[in-house]
Amino acid sequence: LHHMNDPVPVLTEMGRVARARVLVVDQIAPEGREQRHAMNELEMLRDPSHAASRPPSRYRELLRQAGLALVDERTARATESLSSWMWPGEFPAERIAAVRGFIEKRGSATGMDFVRDGDDWTFTRARIMLLCAAPS
């Protein structure tokens, strides 16, 4: 959903088709506005198809707008490396360099806990899992 500007129609259709339960899993942004904006700036630099990483509160609102009832919510955090998130076979060298430059200057502003690891970086990726009941 972080590649969609308006995920409500998709969530609505998921509820219609599933008829019972819908599981939404996606990356989340911090609730804080400044961290969220910095994270989204980094994500768009990495992948121009990125639309928006949203905080948990926004996901709950999107589900409500789509007519889905939240049954259970969980958040998972995992440590990842920049080299596994962006590798030369998939990303152009200039984009990797731009992301590395952003992390050097503003990585701490993203709330993603960037830590230098030799010539690589580690960071925390947070994902939300939302189990919803579809409308009857």
Task: Report what the structure shows.
The chain has helices at 8-18, 33-46, 56-65, 82-85, 93-106, and strands spanning 21-27, 69-81, 115-117, 120-133. It has 136 residues and is an alpha+beta fold. Strand 3 (115-117) and strand 4 (120-133) form a beta hairpin. The two termini are 23 Å apart. The mean pLDDT is 97.
Please work out how many helical segments DSSP would assign.
Answer: 5
Give a count of the beta strands, DSSP E runs of length 2 or more.
4
Helix content: 25-40%
Oligomer: single chain
Net shape = elongated
- H/E order of the elements? HEHHEHHEE
Biggest β-sheet strands, sense, barrel: 4 strands, antiparallel
If you compute it from the alpha carbons, what radius of gyration comes out, rounded to the nearest whole angstrom? 16 Å
Low-confidence stretches: none
Q: Quote the beta fraction.
A: 25-35%
Helix-strand makeup class: alpha+beta
Q: For the residues shown, what is the average pLDDT?
A: 97
- The N- and C-terminal alpha carbons lie at a distance of 23 Å
Descriptive tags:
elongated; 39% helix; 136 residues; single chain; four-stranded antiparallel beta sheet; alpha+beta; 4 strands
